[in-house]
Amino acid sequence: MTVEDVKALAEDIRAEIGKAVVGQEATVDILLVALFAGGHVLLEGPPGTAKTLLARSFARVIGLDFGRIQFTPDLMPGDIIGANLFNFQTSTFTLTRGPIFTDLLLADEINRTPPKTQAALLEAMQERTVTIDGESLALGARFMVVATQNPIEQQGVYPLPEAQLDRFLFKQTVDYPSASEERRIIAAHGSHGNAMAPEEWGVEVIANASVIGEAIAAVAQVRLVDEVIDYIAALIRGTRDVADLESGASPRAGAMLAGAARARAALDGRDFVIPDDVKALAPALLRHRLILSPAAEIDGRAIEDVVTSIIETIEAPR
């Protein structure tokens, strides 16, 4: 598969998702970049903005197994990863796998559950394995988490710890649709009732794990020149020298940004990364990794403004 094939595949995926989801083009692009870069995505937005339908449609189009966990305050780690249960008939323990054993996992309202349960995803997101009673069990090579969370200002939420946030490649803000998009949503979905199954909207499967693997292999061949590597390093290091920030981005963020930039270049049909790829992805990659200083919080600074300032300050190669 070539980068031109990757571009064509991405266009077909967008078209199929568009049958069920109105708008959300930027979020679909973020999901595509994360898929081809092997990363996870955190979607933040108010209820009713099609986050769940988007994740379901995305999983169906690319032909991956889909699993969903509704995170609640009483959810336990074993409810996610599974457990060895004693069978009284055979007097043996039987492994019962949890819903995490899938390809694309939708972690719905992940910040509605306590930190102990949130932590059940840490190993899976980093190493694509889970450990049950000392035994390490592998997840699929295409394992991907798409998590949704309510805005942190809402009641009854548990903020995700920094270590878990750092495992997400992107944090994408899902906003309300435009006036024209909202009218299309009302016209289409009002006549379908509460249709949450993508197949009810005619969304077809156009790929599978093998095709996605070939696309990822093609993305890995995209060239990253020294000047762009230096630019990525300068951006990441620049987050650690800002008075408005208490904590900057980790070296892992730089490696993730490089991989994501390769994927974005391939989606555009290029076999080389340009600085605009880095600039376009930097806000979604940095916004959840940076912590405002107490003084900046008191002054009412927004993390988005700080990220934009850093990107504008670091000169891009020509």
How is the topology of this model organized?
Layout: H1 3-17, H2 25-37, E1 41-44, H3 51-61, E2 66-70, H4 77-81, E3 82-87, E4 92-97, E5 104-108, H5 115-118, H6 122-127, E6 129-132, E7 135-138, E8 144-149, H7 162-165, E9 170-173, H8 179-192, H9 209-220, H10 226-238, E10 245-247, H11 251-267, H12 275-286, E11 291-292, H13 294-298, H14 303-313
Parallel strand pairs: 1-8, 1-9, 2-5, 5-8
Antiparallel strand pairs: 3-4, 6-7, 10-11
Helix pairs in contact: 2-11, 9-11, 10-11, 11-12, 12-14
Key terms for this structure?
5-stranded parallel sheet; 45% helix; CbbQ/NirQ/NorQ/GpvN; 318 residues; alpha/beta; two-stranded antiparallel sheet; P-loop_NTPase
Characterize the structure shown.
The protein contains 14 helices and eleven strands. It has 318 residues and is of the alpha/beta class. The longest helix is centred in the C-terminal third of the chain and has 17 residues. The mean pLDDT is 87.
Order of helices and strands: HHEHEHEEEHHEEEHEHHHEHHEHH
Number of strands: 11
Mean pLDDT: 87
Q: By helix and strand content, what is the structural category? A: alpha/beta
* Order of strands in the sheet with most strands: 2-5-8-1-9
Coarse shape = globular
Radius of gyration, CA atoms, in whole angstroms: 20 Å
Major β-sheet annotation? 5 strands, parallel
Pfam families: AAA_3 (PF07726), AAA_lid_2 (PF17863)
Protein name: MoxR-like ATPase
InterPro entries: AAA+_ATPase, ATPase_AAA-3, CbbQ/NirQ/NorQ/GpvN, ChlI/MoxR_AAA_lid, P-loop_NTPase
Domain AAA+ ATPase: 37-230
